[in-house]
């Protein structure tokens, strides 16, 4: 009997072991976070009326949803469907969606968003900056004060005559230098990189890296007068409103 018992016990152990091994081999399903906690890249987004880009519209403003990662039609301007607006000069000024600010594009909606910008590289912005203040107006963040037509700390440097960064050749004029990376000016001074921080329409947070406004041209040495413009290329990480760490899962 003892021998039969040992054989039965061994068979049971082998069976349990095989079952455990089979169970451990099952693939682990990743958590579906939608568009949260991801590095999302938007490339060549047409943000001005062009022959092959956006259609002209009465407002001259273009809207984007970070939550859904898609453009939002003009008919939804007074809604919480969009998070980021492109408007103002050259359609290059950014703003958030806030329904309580009379000066906002989305006035009258339930949106609670706003926008800010920090002098810090995108990858170095690991958390929502402490005490950050979000501006709720329209066309808030655009040209930087260290270039022409500056309007505060901006996401790009506008070089009207082509001599701030380069030698002033014809193709150097009217170039918009995105400040995702540091830029050294002709006088030797360095403009530090910038990251846009957005509070979305529903109260989530995003950090945004504005990379270029030229079609298919993503490096500053490629930007020149006459290149196709305005096509926004940017990357962002979106987190829920009850979180403050811009992690990627």
Topology:
Layout: H1 2-24, E1 39-46, E2 62-65, E3 70-72, E4 84-87, E5 93-95, E6 114-118, E7 156-159, E8 175-178, E9 183-184, E10 190-191, E11 195-199, E12 205-214, E13 229-239
Antiparallel strand pairs: 1-13, 2-3, 2-4, 4-5, 6-11, 7-8, 9-10, 11-12, 12-13
Fold and architecture overview:
With 249 residues, this protein is mainly beta. It has one domain (29-239). It is 9% helix and 26% strand. The strands form four sheets. The chain has a five-stranded antiparallel sheet, with no helix packed on it. The longest helix has 23 residues, at 2-24.
Task: Give a quick set of tags describing it.
26% strand; 9% helix; 5-stranded antiparallel beta sheet; 13 strands; HmuY protein; signal; mainly beta; HmuY; 249 residues; disordered N terminus
């Amino acid at each position: 009997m003892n021998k039969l018992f040992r054989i039965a016990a061994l068979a049971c152990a082998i069976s349990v072991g095989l079952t455990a091994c089979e169970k451990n081999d099952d693939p682990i399903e990743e958590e579906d976070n939608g568009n949260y906690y991801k590095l999302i890249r938007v490339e060549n987004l047409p943000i001005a009326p062009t022959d092959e880009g956006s259609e002209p519209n009465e407002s001259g403003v273009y809207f984007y949803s970070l939550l859904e990662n898609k453009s939002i039609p003009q008919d939804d301007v007074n809604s919480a469907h969009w998070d980021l607006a492109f408007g103002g000069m050259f359609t290059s000024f950014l703003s958030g969606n806030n329904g309580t600010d009379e000066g906002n594009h989305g006035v009258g909606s339930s949106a609670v968003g706003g926008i800010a910008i920090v002098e810090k590289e995108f990858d170095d912005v690991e958390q929502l900056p402490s005490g950050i203040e979000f501006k709720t107006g329209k066309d808030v963040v655009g040209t930087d004060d260290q270039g022409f037509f500056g309007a505060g700390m901006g996401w790009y440097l506008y070089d009207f005559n082509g001599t701030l960064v380069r030698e002033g050749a014809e193709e150097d004029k009217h170039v918009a230098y995105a400040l995702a990376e540091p830029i050294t000016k002709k006088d030797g001074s360095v403009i530090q990189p910038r990251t846009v921080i957005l509070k979305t329409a529903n109260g989530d947070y995003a950090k945004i890296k504005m990379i270029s406004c030229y079609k298919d041209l993503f490096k500053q040495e490629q930007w020149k007068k006459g290149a196709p413009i305005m096509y926004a290329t940017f990357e962002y990480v979106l987190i829920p409103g009850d979180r403050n760490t811009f992690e990627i899962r």
